[in-house]
# Entry
Amino acid sequence: MTCHDLKHLLPPYQSGELPPAQQEFLSLHLSGCATCRAALADLSLTQRQLESLRGDPWQPQLTGRIAAALKRRQKTRTLGHWLGAGLKAGGVAAIAAALVLALLLALPGDLLLRPAAPPVGSRVLVLAGDTLVDVDTAAGRVAGTAPVGGQAALVTGAGKNWLLSGSTLYELGPAPDEVRQVAAGLTGRLLGASPDGRTLWLLRDEGPDAFAIDAVDTATGTVTRDTEPKPGTAGRATVTPDGRSLLVLARVTDLTFLKVIDSNSRTRVEAHPLLTFAPDDTPLAAPDGQTVWVAGPGRLARVQVGSTGAPAYTPVPGLTPAAALSPDGRQLAAVTDAGGLLLADLPSGQTRTIQPAGRYQHVLWDASGDWFYAAAPGQLDVIPARGRTASHTTVVLPSGPVRTINAR
Ligand SMILES: [Zn+2]
# Structure
């Protein structure tokens, strides 16, 4: 039996429901396997957090999908006793949920404040289809293009961009034609860059149920391999703005966790279970280094790093994982399930939507926070964060789905 086979036995093991022989077999395996021990620790945390939901003010919003997720776990004996009581909070719950929805839908009319436009020289890089596109956003035109592989990925840090195309890593300098090969023969996908641009992190699968995070020194191209694989199937990942934590959404048994990993040691420090969320949802790190938003279909979760409390869940009708957080962490811009845009003011919960001509796939905030970029196939729009749709600029892109937009 492999660890992969054993992971399905961990929940019944945890609640003592396995036949004695299997229980003993698993105890033995756990005593010698750090990966399975870590997976079991994650499960125990989930259980504690599920239990804490009983007194959570956000609990009334545990509608539909979350209730279903809770029911799936009802089998475990230890959860059974409180679950019935927890889900009975009927009438008050419905009213509270309706209130939150009303708040989210109450649009502030037109928040027309000051218009903003990118200053001269502003650039972004876009991966559109198999083309890397250098866009002069102030002039509203494409400044240059280069062919790249379909698997290429782009990250940014310290005013530089790194492109991983195939297994080769390139550094793209501030000048459009400044390209330097950093390293070759790399495996994994780009997770992100440190704010000083000295380190890049690569997310590497270790079998079907574990992942590792390798570090690349961008000056020398030296790769430091992670020798402590973490349990779970890794999905989307990002770096906190201070560069101290790596945030990875990972599936362990049938639950998605937000893993908060110290970027220096790369040993696992925290795992927060996210009921009904999936590894391909989007973790968004706020500048305070503490708050992490996770955008999923129709809902948003807020995780406090360093807290063992359950995440707060908020329904946001129309929200998709194609979302970005403003640099001050107060606003969310996201593609809606209809292909339009949704802007949410996170402190107040107020949202407004923008209907574009095309169907957007990606959004990126400018570092100023005054405007953001939204891309649809063949089109990049520069949109003032507080203005009207009518004032946006459209740049025509080469055809193909847009996979990334990066500041340059
Ligand atoms: Zn194992």
Summary: The helical segments are 3-6, 10-14, 20-32, 34-52, 64-72, 77-86, 90-105.
